[in-house]
């Protein structure tokens, strides 16, 4: 059990990056984990949580460490912005499990060009890591600085097995395979998006694109730096995965 003098794990769960699945490992290893939505609008409860919890998980922006004297450890996941935006659309508007938003007639093109798109979806990843959730033009340099200097681990959705494995190794936990949760199986593949759709997403999310590729590069460096024994351990780990990500490296 952690004390108030030990680091508080802050999981910045950026929406539609695979975070619901990633949270499983944290909750299993941190018995005093709290979900951010339970305390976000309750200042007194949030302060108590920052003192007593061993982990805080959810759609929380970077910056909560400024509100506590306790040491904090940030982790997060990032995703290819094109896939993330498509996931937003199909999960929110084409998912019958959410009848309040379900709209069988709304097209992806209409979604991208609607006036509400920018304030709700543009550069969401940069917003979370810069701590500027309300801005569609967040400070990319600040987000990069936070990523490089204050985020102890940033996984990549497209390298999910690698991310889970490395995260648990960094935390000193025995690597365990956790299944993906909240995945929208009905979502068409990225290859079905037109070049115009992709270009518009990339244009509107230029900050997220740069941030994503930096985070991906940093993760790949960690993967390449694995000692031989850990590489062998990862081979066995990935064999047990019921899903497969990219084989980015030749020895996987």
UniProtKB/TrEMBL annotation:
What domain of life? Bacteria
Q: What single Pfam family name could you report for this chain, choosing any that match?
A: Sulfotransfer_2
Which terms in the GO cellular component ontology are assigned? membrane
Q: Name one GO molecular function term.
A: sulfotransferase activity
Q: Which InterPro entries match?
A: Golvesin-related_Golgi (IPR053259), P-loop_NTPase (IPR027417), Sulfotransferase (IPR005331)
* UniProt name for this protein: Sulfotransferase family protein
Protein source organism: Paenibacillus sp. BIHB 4019
């Amino acid at each position: 059990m952690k004390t108030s003098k030990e680091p508080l794990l802050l999981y910045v769960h950026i929406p539609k990056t695979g975070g619901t699945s990633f949270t499983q490992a944290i909750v299993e290893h941190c018995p005093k984990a709290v979900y951010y939505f339970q305390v976000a609008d309750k200042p007194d409860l949030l302060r108590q949580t920052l003192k007593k919890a061993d982990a805080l998980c959810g759609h929380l922006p970077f910056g909560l460490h400024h509100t506590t004297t306790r040491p904090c450890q940030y982790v997060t996941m990032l995703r290819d912005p094109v896939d993330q935006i498509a996931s937003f659309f199909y999960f929110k508007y084409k998912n019958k499990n959410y009848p309040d938003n379900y709209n069988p007639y709304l097209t992806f093109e209409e979604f991208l060009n609607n006036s509400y798109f920018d304030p709700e979806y543009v550069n969401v990843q940069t917003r979370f890591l810069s701590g500027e959730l309300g801005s569609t033009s967040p400070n990319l340099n600040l987000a990069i600085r936070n990523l490089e200097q204050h985020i102890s681990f940033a996984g990549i959705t497209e390298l999910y097995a690698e991310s889970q494995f490395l995260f648990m190794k960094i935390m000193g936990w025995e690597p365990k395979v956790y299944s993906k949760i909240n995945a929208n199986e009905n979502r068409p593949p990225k290859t079905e998006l037109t070049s115009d759709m992709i270009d518009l997403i990339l244009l509107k999310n230029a900050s997220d694109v740069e941030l994503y590729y930096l985070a991906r590069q940093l993760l790949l460096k960690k993967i390449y730096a694995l000692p031989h024994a850990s590489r062998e351990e990862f081979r066995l780990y990935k064999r047990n995965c019921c899903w497969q990500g990219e084989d980015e490296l030749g020895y996987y």
